[in-house]
UniProtKB/TrEMBL annotation:
<feature type="transmembrane region" description="Helical">
    <location>
        <begin position="92"/>
        <end position="114"/>
    </location>
</feature>
<feature type="coiled-coil region">
    <location>
        <begin position="314"/>
        <end position="341"/>
    </location>
</feature>
<feature type="transmembrane region" description="Helical">
    <location>
        <begin position="221"/>
        <end position="240"/>
    </location>
</feature>
<feature type="transmembrane region" description="Helical">
    <location>
        <begin position="120"/>
        <end position="139"/>
    </location>
</feature>
<protein>
    <recommendedName>
        <fullName>histidine kinase</fullName>
        <ecNumber>2.7.13.3</ecNumber>
    </recommendedName>
</protein>
<feature type="compositionally biased region" description="Polar residues">
    <location>
        <begin position="1"/>
        <end position="16"/>
    </location>
</feature>
<keyword id="KW-0597">Phosphoprotein</keyword>
<dbReference type="InterPro" id="IPR003594">
    <property type="entry name" value="HATPase_dom"/>
</dbReference>
<keyword id="KW-0472">Membrane</keyword>
<feature type="domain" description="Histidine kinase/HSP90-like ATPase">
    <location>
        <begin position="386"/>
        <end position="475"/>
    </location>
</feature>
<dbReference type="Pfam" id="PF07730">
    <property type="entry name" value="HisKA_3"/>
</dbReference>
<keyword id="KW-0418">Kinase</keyword>
<keyword id="KW-0175">Coiled coil</keyword>
<dbReference type="InterPro" id="IPR050482">
    <property type="entry name" value="Sensor_HK_TwoCompSys"/>
</dbReference>
<keyword id="KW-0547">Nucleotide-binding</keyword>
<feature type="transmembrane region" description="Helical">
    <location>
        <begin position="146"/>
        <end position="164"/>
    </location>
</feature>
<feature type="domain" description="Signal transduction histidine kinase subgroup 3 dimerisation and phosphoacceptor">
    <location>
        <begin position="269"/>
        <end position="334"/>
    </location>
</feature>
Length: 476
C-alpha cells in the first residue's frame, strides 16, 4: 500500500501570507528612506507670472503677453462724447455725425466693391456692413467696434487679393476703409488707455506690412497712408483727452478748495462770534456771583438754609466762569489776542459813521445820539453787539466794493424786532484794492450773527445799482 504524500509542516515552508510578512519590514524601511531623501531635496524654482522671466526670450514673452492684454482689455463702457453737454443738440451731435458717416460709407463701399472690384453683391454687402455699422457701437465701446472693423478690413484685403480685378486699384485698403478707420481712431483716442492705443497702432502697422510683403505688385501704399493718419489721429485725440481730464481735475480741485475755504471762513466767524459773546455772558455770570455772595449782607434776617442756597448759587456761577474761560482758550487761535476793550454797541454808531466818512464814503445816519441811547437801553447786550457788527461789516463792504458811493443807515424797533438797514448807491470811483481792517468775513459773518440771534437777513442788489443789507433781530 502506497503511503499518501502529506504536506510538510516545516517552518520554512511557505504558508498563506508568510512571504508578504517576510518582505513588508524591508519594504517599509526603503520607503521611509526614500521619503526622507525626497523631503531633503530642494524644491524646484517656481516661475511667477507676475514677474518677468530672465533672459531675452522671457522679456519677449512678457511683452507679447502685455500686448495681448492691451488688445483684449477695453475701457469700461461709458457715455458717448459730449454726453455732459448742457444742450440737447450738443449731446446728440456725436450720434448724428457717426450716423452720417455710416449712411455715406455703407452704400459707397458696396458700389465700389461690386463695380470696380467685381465682387459679388452678397460678399460686398457683408463686408460693407461689418466695416461701417460698428462705428455706431464705437461711440460707447470703441475697442469692441475695432475688433469687428479691423477683422472685416483684413478679410476684405484677402478677398480683394483673391479677386482678378485688383491691378491698378487701391489695395489692401480702399478709400472708404481709410475714412472709416480714421473716424474709429478718433473715438478710440477719446476713450481707451495709452497702452491700448499703442497696441492698436502696432497691429495696424503689422497688417499693412504683411499685405505689402504678400504682394508688392498689387500694393499701392494705401497702408502707409492709413497708418500715418491713424497714428496722428490717436496722438491728437489722446492729447486732447489728457488736457480735458487735467482741466476737469483742476476745476474739481478748485471747487473743493473753494468749499473748504468757505467752511473755514464760517468756522472762523463762528469762533469769533463765540469769543465776543463770551464777554457778554461772563458779565452776566459775574453779576450773578456778586449778587449771590452779597445777599446775606444786603438782605437781613436770612435763614441759614437760604444763605447756604445763595452760597451754592455763587459757587456754581464761579465754576461756570472758569469753564467759560477754558472754552475761550479753545476758541482763540494762536495768533488771536485777547480783547482788552469793552465790546462795542449801537451807541458807538456815530463814531463808526465818522470813520467811514473819512474813508471816502458819505454816510447818512438819521438817528441822533439821544435816540440811540434810548434804543440801546431796550436791547439785550447780544442783540446790541450783533447789530453793531452787522452795520460795521456792511459799511466795510461799501468801502471795498463801492468806493465813492453814498450809504444810509436806518435803525429802529418795530413789532418786537430790531430792524437794521444799510443801503448804498453805485460806485462812483474805479474799484481798487484797499488795505482795510475788517473784523468779519462779509455776508458770512452777518448771516451767522443773525442766525445765532434767531433773526433773518436780506442782502442783495438795490434798484439803483447799489446794494442793500436788511437785518431783523428779535429782542427776546
Amino acid at each position: 500500500m502506497n503511503d499518501t504524500q502529506q504536506p510538510s509542516t516545516d517552518e520554512t515552508t511557505d504558508q498563506p501570507g508568510s512571504r508578504a510578512r517576510r518582505w513588508l519590514p524591508p519594504l517599509r524601511q526603503r520607503l521611509a528612506g526614500a521619503r526622507a531623501v525626497f523631503r531633503a531635496a530642494p524644491e524646484p524654482d517656481r516661475v511667477s507670472l507676475d514677474k518677468p522671466a530672465d533672459g531675452p526670450w522671457g522679456a519677449v514673452r512678457d511683452g507679447l503677453r502685455e500686448f495681448g492684454v492691451a488688445l483684449i482689455s477695453p475701457a469700461a463702457p461709458g457715455r458717448a462724447p459730449l454726453a455732459d453737454a448742457p444742450k440737447l443738440w450738443l449731446r446728440a451731435a456725436p450720434y448724428a455725425v457717426v450716423f452720417v458717416f455710416v449712411a455715406a460709407l455703407l452704400p459707397t463701399t458696396v458700389t465700389v466693391l461690386v463695380q470696380d472690384y467685381k465682387m459679388s453683391g452678397g460678399m460686398a454687402g457683408g463686408l460693407a456692413v461689418a466695416q461701417t455699422v460698428p462705428l455706431l457701437l464705437a461711440l460707447t465701446r470703441p475697442l469692441h467696434a475695432w475688433w469687428v472693423i479691423f477683422a472685416a478690413d483684413v478679410a476684405g484685403g484677402f478677398a480683394l487679393y483673391a479677386g482678378p480685378h485688383v491691378d491698378g486699384r487701391s489695395w489692401p485698403w480702399t478709400p472708404m476703409i481709410i475714412v472709416g478707420y480714421v473716424l474709429l481712431m478718433v473715438l478710440l483716442g477719446l476713450r481707451e488707455s495709452r497702452r491700448t492705443l499703442i497696441a492698436v497702432a502696432l497691429v495696424t502697422a503689422a497688417a499693412g506690412v504683411f499685405f505689402e510683403q504678400l504682394s508688392q505688385e498689387y500694393s499701392d501704399g494705401s497702408w502707409v497712408l492709413m497708418l500715418v493718419l491713424a497714428g496722428v489721429t490717436l496722438v491728437v485725440t489722446y492729447a486732447l483727452r489728457l488736457r480735458g481730464e487735467a482741466q476737469a481735475k483742476l476745476a474739481e480741485q478748485e471747487t473743493i478748495s473753494e468749499a473748504e475755504r468757505a467752511q473755514r471762513t464760517l468756522l472762523e466767524e463762528r469762533a469769533r462770534i463765540a469769543r465776543e459773546l463770551h464777554d457778554v455772558v461772563a458779565h452776566h455770570m459775574s453779576v450773578i456771583t456778586v449778587q449771590a455772595d452779597t445777599a446775606k449782607y444786603r438782605l437781613p434776617d436770612l435763614s441759614p438754609e437760604v444763605q447756604q442756597e445763595f452760597g451754592e448759587i455763587a459757587s456754581a456761577a464761579r465754576e461756570s466762569l472758569t469753564e467759560m474761560r477754558r472754552l475761550l482758550k479753545v476758541l482763540r487761535n494762536e495768533e488771536a489776542q485777547a480783547e482788552r476793550t469793552p465790546q462795542p454797541g449801537l451807541k458807538r454808531l456815530h463814531q463808526l459813521a465818522d470813520a467811514t466818512r473819512r474813508a471816502g464814503v458819505e454816510v447818512d445816519l438819521p438817528v441822533g445820539d439821544g435816540q440811540l441811547a434810548e434804543l440801546v437801553a431796550r436791547l439785550p447786550q447780544t442783540v446790541d453787539l450783533s447789530a453793531y457788527r452787522i452795520v460795521q461789516e456792511a459799511l466795510s463792504n461799501v468801502i471795498r466794493h463801492a468806493p465813492g458811493a453814498s450809504a444810509r443807515i436806518d435803525v429802529g424797533v418795530e413789532d418786537g424786532e430790531l430792524r437794521v438797514t444799510v443801503t448804498n448807491g453805485p460806485a462812483r470811483k474805479p474799484l481798487s484794492v484797499l488795505e482795510t481792517s475788517g473784523t468779519g468775513h462779509g455776508l458770512v459773518g452777518m448771516r451767522e450773527r443773525v442766525r445765532l440771534t434767531g433773526g433773518s437777513l436780506d442782502a442783495g442788489p438795490a434798484g439803483d445799482g447799489g446794494f442793500r443789507v436788511a437785518a431783523r433781530i428779535p429782542l427776546n
